[in-house]
Design brief:
It is a single chain. Helix 11 packs parallel to helix 17. The radius of gyration is 28 Å and the shape is elongated. It has 421 residues and is mostly helical. The chain has two domains: 129 residues, no CATH class; 276 residues, no CATH class. Helix content is 77%, strand content 0%. The chain contains 18 helices and no strands. The mean pLDDT is 77. The relative contact order is 0.08.
Length: 421
C-alpha cells in the first residue's frame, strides 16, 4: 500500500496544508491579542484549513464544493455573532467577519497552487487589522479639500488613463498618450503622497523633514517659499537655506526613480552618473546642515499640491519638451538637444527627465547623451532657483544658498567633463 503513495505529491499537499495553517495562525494571533470575541487564535487556523480542504475536494468533485463551503463558513460566522448582536449596544463592525471569509478563500488559494499570492494577502490582512488606530487617525487628519484631491487623482489614474490609446504616434513616433498620462499620474501621486505624509506626521517637524518633503512636492516652490519667509524671519535664514539645499538634493533622487521607471533596459545605465550627482548634492546639503543650521524650523504646505489642472499643464509641458527634444535631435544635432534641456530644466525637472528617458528607451537618443541632458536640466534648475533666492531672500540666506548651489554646480560640471563616454 505504501508503494502506491505518490510521496512527492503528498509532501507538496502537506506543505500547502501547513502553509494554510500557518497563515491562519498569523491572523488569529492578531485577533486573539485584540481579544476579539468572534474568532481568535484557534478559529482562524480552522477557517483556513476548512478553505484548504474545500479546495482539495474541489479538484475531485468540482468547484461547487468551494461555493457550498463558502456559504457554510459565512453562515457559521453569522451564527457565531448573533449573541453579540442581541446586546443593548452591539458592535456592528464587520471587520473580523470579513477577515474570516477572506482567510477561508486564502486557504482555497493555497491548495490550488497560489501559495505566494496567499502569503501576500494574509500579510496584508494582518497589517490592516493591526493598524486600526493609525488608519482612523490618518482619516481624521484628512480634510475635505484633501479628499477632493485624492478623488481627482483617482479620476486621472483610474478613469482617464485606461481610456487613452497605448501606441506611439505623431512626429517621429515619440508621442504615446497612455504613457504620457501615466507619467503625469506618477508625478501627481508622488506629490500628493508627500503632502499627506507631511500632514499626518505633523508632530515630527523640522528642517530635514521640510527639505525632504519639499523636494518631493516641488523644490522650486519650496525654494521660493522659504526665500519669502526669510524676509519676515531673518533669524531663520540659515535654516531656510538648508531646506532649499535639501530639497534640491531630493530632486535628483526623484530623477533617479523617474529614469528607472521611464527608461527600462539599457536606458538605466544613465542612473550611475546621476546617482553620483545626487550623492554630491546630498553631501553639500549635509555639510550645510552641520555648519549653518542653528535652529530647527519647518515648512508646511497649507493646501494639497495635487490638482487636475496642474496635471494637465504638466502634460502640455511634457509634450512640448518631448517634441522640442525630438526636433532638436532631428534638425540641430546634440547641440540643440542641450539647449532644449537647459531651457526646459529651468522651472521643471520632471519634463526633461521623463521625455529624455523615453527617447533613450526608444533608441532615439544615446544613453551617454541622455544623462548629460538630464544633468544639464538639473544644473539649469539650480541656476533658476538661485536667481529666485537672490530676488526674494535676505542677504544671509542668499549667501548661504548660493554657496551651496555653486558647490553643486561645480560637481555637475566636473561630471560633464570627466565622466567617461
Amino acid at each position: 500500500m505504501i508503494a502506491d503513495v505518490n510521496l512527492p505529491e503528498s509532501l507538496e499537499l502537506l506543505k500547502s496544508f501547513g502553509t494554510a495553517l500557518g497563515l491562519g495562525l498569523l491572523v488569529g494571533l492578531q485577533r486573539e491579542w485584540r481579544r476579539d470575541k468572534v474568532a481568535g487564535i484557534r478559529t482562524f487556523p480552522l477557517i483556513t484549513l476548512f478553505g484548504a480542504l474545500s479546495g482539495f475536494l474541489s479538484t475531485t468533485f468540482g468547484p461547487w464544493v468551494i461555493a457550498a463551503a463558502l456559504i457554510a463558513c459565512t453562515s457559521l460566522v453569522i451564527l457565531g455573532n448573533l449573541a453579540a448582536l442581541r446586546k443593548p449596544d452591539p458592535d456592528t463592525g464587520l471587520t473580523t467577519e470579513i477577515a474570516a471569509v477572506v482567510m477561508f478563500l486564502i486557504g482555497v488559494m493555497v491548495i490550488l497552487g497560489h501559495r505566494l499570492e496567499a502569503v501576500v494577502c494574509s500579510g496584508t490582512v494582518m497589517v490592516l487589522l493591526q493598524i486600526k488606530k493609525p488608519l482612523h487617525g490618518m482619516v481624521r487628519r484628512i480634510g475635505e479639500n484633501d479628499l477632493k484631491e485624492i478623488a481627482r487623482l483617482v479620476l486621472a489614474g483610474l478613469v482617464i488613463l485606461p481610456l487613452l490609446p497605448n501606441r506611439d504616434m505623431g512626429y517621429l513616433d515619440v508621442f504615446n498618450p497612455f504613457k504620457v498620462w501615466l507619467l503625469v499620474v506618477l508625478i501627481v501621486g508622488i506629490s500628493l503622497a508627500a503632502y499627506l505624509a507631511g500632514k499626518i506626521l505633523g508632530g515630527k517637524k523640522g528642517t530635514l523633514l521640510a527639505g525632504i518633503l519639499g523636494g518631493l512636492i516641488s523644490s522650486t516652490a519650496t525654494t521660493a517659499s522659504v526665500a519669502r519667509r526669510s524676509k519676515s524671519n531673518p533669524q531663520g535664514a540659515a535654516s531656510f537655506a538648508v531646506i532649499a539645499l535639501i530639497a534640491s538634493a531630493v530632486v535628483f533622487a526623484r530623477v533617479l526613480v523617474e529614469v528607472w521607471v521611464a527608461a527600462p533596459g539599457e536606458g538605466r545605465a544613465m542612473i550611475r552618473p546621476l546617482a553620483v550627482m545626487m550623492a554630491w548634492t546630498a553631501l553639500v546639503a549635509a555639510v550645510a546642515y552641520r555648519v549653518s543650521l542653528r535652529r530647527q524650523q519647518d515648512v508646511t504646505e497649507d493646501e494639497a499640491p495635487s490638482e487636475l489642472k496642474g496635471a494637465v499643464l504638466f502634460a502640455l509641458l511634457y509634450i512640448a519638451v518631448l517634441y522640442g527634444v525630438a526636433f532638436a535631435k532631428e534638425e540641430l544635432g546634440d547641440t540643440g538637444l542641450f539647449a532644449v534641456a537647459a531651457v526646459s530644466g529651468l522651472t521643471d525637472m520632471d519634463a526633461i527627465t521623463l521625455s529624455t528617458s523615453r527617447l533613450v528607451s526608444g533608441g532615439h537618443v544615446e544613453t551617454t547623451t541622455g544623462w548629460r541632458l538630464i544633468l544639464v536640466g538639473g544644473m539649469a534648475n539650480l541656476v533658476f532657483k538661485g536667481g529666485m533666492v537672490a530676488v526674494l531672500g535676505t542677504r544671509a540666506m542668499i549667501k548661504a544658498t548660493l554657496l551651496g548651489f555653486a558647490a553643486a554646480l561645480a560637481g555637475g560640471a566636473a561630471l560633464l567633463a570627466l565622466w567617461p563616454g
